[in-house]
Amino acid sequence: MEQHVLVRFYHEIALKGGNRPWFLRQMAKNLKRALTGTGVSGIKRDSMMATFKLKSEDQWPLVKERLEHVIGVERFSRAYRVDPTIEAIQEAVPAMLEGHNPKSFRVTARRTDKRFPMTSPEINQRLGDQIKSATGWPVDLKNPDFNLQVQTTGNDALLTTEELRGPGGMPVGVGGHVAMLLSGGIDSPVAAYQMIRRGCKVTFIHFHSFPLVEGTSKEKAADLVELLNQYQQDSLLLMVPFAAVQQRIIVTVPPAYRVTIYRRFMLRIAQALALKHGAGALVTGDSLGQVSSQTLENMTTIGAVADKLPLFRPLLAMDKQEIIDKARPLGTYPISIIPDQDCCSLFVPKHPVTKSRIVDVEKMEEELPVDEMVQEALAEVEEHTYHWPSSEASARVAEEAPTV
Ligand code: ATP
Ligand code: MG
């Protein structure tokens, strides 16, 4: 029997009316790109799913790893292909049962092509009877130990027994382009992933105080982008040196207001970079009340400088534990907790102001050459690009898992 892989797309893609063909095209494009270097070819799209042939068993581990990172993949499985007739399906059933000895089972048939001459319940009944008389396994429709799934399409019947979860979400590229302020902390990488999962292309901006502090936060940001890039395939990370801005701020701004003013500068610089790179919004990992810079008053004072683009805070109403619960499976958590010196902890007191007012802060900024400071920082920005699957990774993989 031929081995195929069956990929089911995120249910929400189907709900998008006139945009649906575009979303599915983007989905297919991202899927194809993710499979680069695996030796897989001939991906066929059929409504809300895609199928392709596995040339050999060896391809599966890499294909599986890649599919786990494709946004828009809801579930996927390895499937055996036979001709779309009940006789051919029944003939394949014994091979599907091999090596299994479950406490209970069920059959779940689906027809994407209604020309198949039996209904889904009829297929379930026929195969259920066949399996029961061959094995004696009891049927359990609600909570089966073993589920034989049969899908009939125009030209194929696909049989599968294990289904794996993909990340779900809307295909990257259909949600627009946003600029993410990425610290080395726990929250912002999770916020970035939430946006990617809504179909956004995310450009990353990281502010660092190197050489006033060591370069750990830069390395963390780079590692986080490399990890997150597996979900969006191409990324740009903009590293902004922030020490010079901070050194000017501390000369005139009282300690309690420094974090607020640092943040306003970050946002001004981020907005300029977002506009330069064509992003339509700014995103932060703020969560209401988590730290002093995230009180309602301080978020208002800080957010006020984003006057040309909307500022989104996808984690606003989540608490730290909920965010950590997302960071762990994503894999960002171990990177985020590596100790570093956050640039905003430089030259600031233990208790910064929690209820700042825009008028006061604007008055303090009158002492500063704001535009000049922004322009100076922009002139020093370093650009790093990331691509996934990388050509090296694909080459390494091709060596490890030769295709037949
Ligand atoms: P995080 O875990 O994302 O660092 P946090 O709880 O430490 O969040 P803050 O440090 O106050 O909170 O940062 C709030 C948001 O401001 C971050 O989520 C991020 O979007 C942005 N931010 C903070 N520091 C930086 C930085 N050095 N570079 C880029 N963005 C930053
Ligand atoms: Mg932080």
Task: Please tell me about this protein's structure.
This protein has 404 residues and is of the alpha/beta class. It has 2 domains: 2-168, VC0802-like, CATH 3.30.2130.30; 177-391, HUPs (Rossmann fold, 3-Layer(aba) Sandwich). It is built from 14 helices and 14 strands. The protein has helices spanning 20-34, 60-67, 86-97, 120-135, 187-197, 216-232, 243-252, 258-276, 296-303, 320-330, 333-336, 358-365, 370-379, 391-400; strands spanning 2-9, 44-46, 49-53, 73-82, 105-111, 146-152, 157-160, 164-165, 177-181, 201-208, 234-241, 282-283, 311-312, 382-387. Strands 1, 2, 3, 4, 5, 6, 7 and 8 form an 8-stranded mixed β-sheet that branches. Strands 13-12-9-10-11-14 form a 6-stranded mixed β-sheet, with helices on both faces. α7 (243-252) packs antiparallel against α8 (258-276). The protein is elongated. Mean pLDDT is 93; it is low at 393-404. The site of magnesium ion has 3 residues, from loops.
Bound molecules: adenosine-5'-triphosphate, magnesium ion
Shape descriptor: elongated
| Known CATH architecture of the largest domain | 3-Layer(aba) Sandwich
Overall pLDDT confidence: 93
Number of helices: 14
Summed up, the domain count is 2
β content, as a range? Answer: 15-25%
- Low-confidence parts lasting 5 or more residues at pLDDT below 50? 393-404
Biggest β-sheet description: 8 strands, mixed
Compute the separation of the termini in Å.
Answer: 16 Å
Order of helices and strands: EHEEHEHEHEEEEHEHEHHEHEHHHHEH
- Give the helix/strand class: alpha/beta
CATH class term of the largest domain: Alpha Beta
Rg for CA atoms: 26 Å
Please tally the β strands and state the result.
14
CATH superfamily of the largest domain: HUPs
Helix content: 25-40%
CATH-derived topology of the largest domain: Rossmann fold
